[in-house]
Amino acid sequence: MKRLAGEIALVTGGASGIGRATAEKLAALGAQVVVADRNGDGAEHVAQLLRDGGSAALAVMMDVTKRESVRAGIERARTILGPITILVSAAGWDRIQPFVENSPELWEQLIAVNLLGPIYVTREVIDDMIHARRGRLVFVSSDAARVGSSGEAVYSAAKGGLLSFAKTLARELARYQITANVVCPGPTETPLLDEVRSSEAGAKIIAAMTKAIPLGRLAKPEEVAAAIAFFAMPEAGFITGQVLSVSGGLTMVG
Q1: Known catalytic residue: 120?
Q2: Which of 155, 202, 224, 248 is catalytic?
Q3: CATH of domain 8-188+222-245
Q4: Which of 20, 32, 85, 210 has its CA 20 to 30 A from that of 231?
């Protein structure tokens, strides 16, 4: 039997990048997967690929920055597949720009996607997990949250808030056998990274980061997905409140 048979996993940002790789990994391990993304066509494409491979999968269009969209998407998933037992908050967004050049609108967008979004989604799934006395929460943060990153002040702040959110949930929810952990990717070959590299400043920062990575390359989405899947596995049931970097050694935080 596959290790995640019987689990229902919701992956936000599941239409591309790390989210898509995670959806594919969890499906391969036997989970039924809800592919959630604001790109509804992209989510449906990934879900169909999973179904073609023999897995149960559902696409839901979800904008994590809007509570009603989150609520509607999770209610649809609950009605069709059942209560969520694994949540992977992988939806994220960034724009590299010096803080003094940021607009307040950019601050709000970065915080909405990277911090408030995971909070909204978690709140909508957590009651079912508490009732069942089981569940896995896995948040995708960033090593920018742990060590800072030039041009990413508010992004780093939002992702840092996600670390604190996860650790506090780990303490509050342990009595219900719900774990909460964080994966912090370093620079990863995703559509978001391509977007960051489209600006001259972003391209220079990514090139410098790549040069500084001891393993000499950027991460692949499936490598980050493997770390996320680990926290969802039965073998990780005694691990909670932890942060794991997948950065090729770019950061080595104790």
Answers
A1: no
A2: 155
A3: 3.40.50.720
A4: 210
